[in-house]
Amino acid sequence: MDLEKPPVRPAVAPAGEGCLVVAVRVPVRIVALVLVVPVRLVWDALVVVGRFLNDTLFRPLGRALLWLGRAVFVWPFVGLWRYALVPLGKALAWLGNVLLVVPAIACYRYVLTPLGHAALWLYARVLTPVGHVLAAIGAGLWAGVGWLGRYLVVVPSVGLYRWVLVPVGRAVAWCVRGVVWLVTTVVTGTGVALYWITRVLLVLPALAVWRWVLAPVGRVLAVVAREVGDALGHAWRVAGHVSLAVGRFLGTLFRWVFVEPVRWAYRSVLTPVGHVVRDAVLRPAAEAGRRVGRTTHQALAAARVSVRQARADIRRVLVGEPKGPRSKGDRERAKLRAERNVSDRQDVMTKG
To answer: What keywords were assigned to this record (predicted)?
Structure first.
């Protein structure tokens, strides 16, 4: 952040803004800044805590719950579907095919198809000629009924409509038109009177109130609302910069108070001490342990050889000298000498 304050300029209203805008802007921005900065600091702190909790707690917990949900719900249903329902469905499909589809096909092929052919033959050879005969009889009857209906119903109805109903309808229509004109005239006059009464008593006063009272008040309220919104936005941005500066300061303070002393102590104290302990204590102790182990192994090997040699001597005294190749004791003594040579070479290499 820039610590140098810019030169104070006089509050000059931009083009299109009056003194009211300038008078409202400064106090509103000061109040908004005072109110918004703590809120922004708390908000940024909550965001940092939420991210930390999300990375360290919620995300691993969610993964564990997801794995548990899969293990408890998904995998058993998948196994049930794959190894129980699918084979059962295939078995039911095969059973339905054997018990339903195959008998239905056989019934259609060997029962319904012959019955259909028989019904078609009956329709073509029997019902069609009978239908033609009945159609001819019906056509004659319909022609007779039509002639009677024409001269008994249609002709008298046309005469009644032309010479009675049409004149009566025209007279009724003329009367209706007269009544409609009278009603329209009365309604129009009443509507014009009500329009002028409403205009003079309601519309013109309401228009005057809107033009001379509500519109100026609305402009003032609009200016105040706009300035409040701009002030809140400006205060939120300034609070963001302040929060960033505070966060960096706290991070730097934590680094120099905790992280750097711990790093210095690790590099300057613990690492040399560890090296000294490793070189002065651990390596000699390990070497001494290895030497003790080799000495113990050699002593045990020598004891085993001595025991075997004593048993061989006792056997030789009791039974006699064995015939054949070299005895097992000689082989053990040769093996012991080879192990001693190897351990001596290792000691020389270690000292070197």
So the answer is: Membrane, Transmembrane, Transmembrane helix
